[in-house]
Amino acid sequence: MGKLLIVGSVAFDAIETPFGKTDKILGGAAPFIGLAASHYRADSAIVSVVGEDFPASYLDLLRERGIDVSGIEVVPGGKTFFWSGRYHNDLNMRDTLVTELNVMADFQPVVPEAYRDADIVMLGNLHPDIQLSVIGQMDSRPKLTVLDTMNYWMDNTLDTLLQVIGKVDVITINDEEARQLSGEYSLVKAAEAIHEMGPRYVVIKKGENGALLFNDSRIFFAPALPLEEIFDPTGAGDTFAGGFTGYLAQTQNISFNNLRNAVIHGSNLASFCVERFGTERLIQLRPQDIDQRLERFRELTQFDIEVK
Amino acid sequence: MGKLLIVGSVAFDAIETPFGKTDKILGGAAPFIGLAASHYRADSAIVSVVGEDFPASYLDLLRERGIDVSGIEVVPGGKTFFWSGRYHNDLNMRDTLVTELNVMADFQPVVPEAYRDADIVMLGNLHPDIQLSVIGQMDSRPKLTVLDTMNYWMDNTLDTLLQVIGKVDVITINDEEARQLSGEYSLVKAAEAIHEMGPRYVVIKKGENGALLFNDSRIFFAPALPLEEIFDPTGAGDTFAGGFTGYLAQTQNISFNNLRNAVIHGSNLASFCVERFGTERLIQLRPQDIDQRLERFRELTQFDIEVK
Asked: Carbohydrate kinase PfkB domain: which residues (chains A, B) (predicted)?
């Protein structure tokens, strides 16, 4: 059983989809990552920041799922990061209505003493300065450092982002971001170019079209589970990262073959996430639900052709 | 070893991609289907029509690959169907520059006597009247009838198309066409609606994002092989259909499990097709190329998670 250190935003989200809307609910990358990872046998901790307005019940929720929240700083008098968005009818596009960074704007992360030797570090999507600071606080190089990021940081803080990319083992980005970062249209060529920047594993997420794992010339593909209805895509990428790193922290095996399994676990958890608003489904999830759906992934992809 | 009857256009294609352009080359659905299927142990025949301008060397090419071309009518003084198109830079969109139906406009298909008991009938994309006529000429219901069609026929001859759909076992269409035909956005719901129209198997092709096979509540997914470069997408869907039906004619097993394999074979052949202009790559292909790439499909998708 390994230690998983998660850095990421903790936020209030207000979401509108064609199926309904929410008031401010628990959001941000870190809760999705942490709750997804909490379904695996690993010691997890979150490094983040919230304001005084952040409900104790949300911290309790994370604590009850076994997540160490001592690294979540509560800023007296501060306001928690707030994001609001509205999805289009096909759910593949969304408009951001509000982004209030609040306490996130001046966040200086402090990694708890007990997690400076974490096996797996999951750098959730936020300012590369914060990701770099967390990397610098580790006692030694973790077994595996995983970076999630997005086009915003490519547009605005590319130099720092490239420093971070140079220090990680795995990067997870979507297809358009992979193209932007590499300048290559072909995802195979994009992954090659990104390997050159540092990460020996490149995960390219294609939403409802699945995810590709590249490791030099080796490629693995995990489909997204075809669902009758996608209710709310918010947090699907973070949930993928949580299932991916939670499984790796549990198994402590960072070979390419086991990363294949981790991609399936990440995709599996993400398929639940989108069935309800926010983190709701991740919280209700039982081990047997996870196992049953893993079996569906097997049925979905496994075949048996005799190659002569 | 089974008999495969193919009906489809035989044409001249003139293609422009970002990588180059061709003069009039061998095109149309039937040659792609037939050449792909010719890599399997099956007796195949094409029913189609060409003009007097169609080179004997193209017919010889098909004959040399073991395809019965006695059902390809040559119209004295007629001109062969001609299509010209230009692909956009990302190859996902194309503009049709020229469509000259010529002899295809009045085509009355005649199924050769020896193929009226074919095991598998592959109805390539063309006018539903022609597809219906071929179905009507069979001595008895084939083991499996596979229909390929497109949005053009949904827009213009929906009633006849629905008659054809009601008589086939498998339909292959792309994701947008599945949505148009069913009125459902979710592909899972679209497949359910299309099952109700007749076909017990629904194959939804998503181009570089792979293909889904639906059979009631069962789903199988085959990815497209990630390629460094796609050179010319023309005929990829027809090649998929040829690999799919060629493999089924060889194995004579139309269970869901074997259709999974057939979808992988179809995807495998299609991955070769797009590497060169037109049918060029399908003609050069050796059995060991096919086997090696099947192995890549296995590596791409197979994983081994212990489900407790």
From this structure: 6-280
Of A223, A291, A305, the CB nearest to B294: A305
- Which residues constitute the domain of residue A242? 3-301
Cβ neighbours of A185 in B, within 8 Å: 90
* CA A103 to chain CA mean position, Å: 21
SS3 (DSSP) at A94: strand
Q: HSE (CB half, 13 Å, CA atoms) of B109? A: 30
Domain count, chain A: 1
Residues 6+ apart with CB under 8 A from A60: none
Put simply, the answer to whether A226 touches B218 (Cβ < 8 Å) is no
Query: ipTM of this predicted complex?
Result: 0.88
For chain A, how many residues are written? Answer: 308
**Interchain CB distance below 8 Å, A303 and B218:** no
Of all residues in chain B, the one with the smallest CA distance to A227 is: B188
Please answer yes or no on whether B264 and A189 come within 8 Å at the CB atom: no
Rg (CA), chain B: 18
Q: How far apart are CA B199 and CA B191, in angstroms?
A: 10
The distance of A153 to chain B (nearest Cα, Å) reads: 25
Give pLDDT < 50 ranges for chain A: 308
Tokens at B198, concatenated: 């007749």
CA distance A277 to chain B (A): 19
Asked whether residue B306 is domain-assigned, the answer is no
Give the E-state strand segments of chain A in sequence order: 3-7, 11-17, 20-21, 25-27, 43-51, 67-68, 72-75, 82-87, 94-100, 120-123, 144-148, 170-174, 201-205, 211-215, 218-222
Round to whole Å and give the CA distance between B121 and B141: 10
Residue B116 domain flag: yes
Set of chain A residues whose Cβ sits within 8 Å of the Cβ of B304 = 257, 261
pLDDT tens, A67-125? 999 999 999 999 999 999 999 887 888 999 999 999 999 999 999 999 999 999 999 99
Q: Do A210 and B212 touch (CB under 8 A)?
A: no
Tell which residue, A191, A192, A187, A127, has the closest CA to residue A154: A127
Report whether A220 contacts A188 (CB < 8 A).
no
**Domain-located, residue A111:** yes
- Residue A259's identity, in one-letter code, is L
Please state, in angstroms and as integers, the Cα–Cα distance from residue A98 to each residue in A25, A80, A101, B65, B128, following that order.
14, 13, 10, 63, 52
B interface with A, Cβ–Cβ < 8 A, is: 90, 185-189, 206, 209-210, 212, 218-223, 226-230, 257, 260-261, 264-265, 287, 291, 294-295, 298-305, 307-308
> Where residue B202 sits, what CATH number does that domain have?
3.40.1190.20
| Residue A216, domain member (yes or no) | yes
Q: B83-132 pLDDT, tens per residue?
A: 999 999 878 889 999 999 999 999 999 999 999 999 999 999 999 999 99
Q: Indicate yes or no: CB of A226 within 8 angstroms of CB of B219.
A: yes
Encoding tokens for residue B91? 């190859």
